[in-house]
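Lab manual, section 2.4: Encoding a predicted structure.

Procedure: take the sequence of the chain (125 residues), apply the prediction step described in section 2.3, and record the output as structure tokens. A sample record is shown.
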Amino acid sequence: MPARVRGNVLVNISDTVTVIGNVISVTGLGSLASVVVAPISAPSFTFTIQANDASAVESDNGARALSIAGRAYGNAGDQVSVGGQVTTISGSGASAVLTITLKSSGASVQVPANSCYGVDVVGGN
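Recorded output:
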């Protein structure tokens, strides 16, 4: 069954989605740092990515992670976009849980469907 993401858009397996979230914490340095992200639309939910799975506006003040384009980010509250391909859907509609395979690392994360956008908005930032 398809899931419904932000904007009531239907997504299916193999579709590309994006989660926009805020950095909660960073462990490590550079493009391989582990970054905990909370989706803006589901802030009580978190997932962990490799730093270069995200697109982010470059920040300063000791940012420790490097985005997909090599820009420094990683301060708590920094906004990131994380894109990937839907590989499984558990449930249906807006309450479904999506497993997405991330662009850079190839790792999989599970996210609520209603925290995703049905268009790939991860750019080269």
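Check your result against the sample. The CA atoms of residues 54 and 82 lie 5 Å apart.
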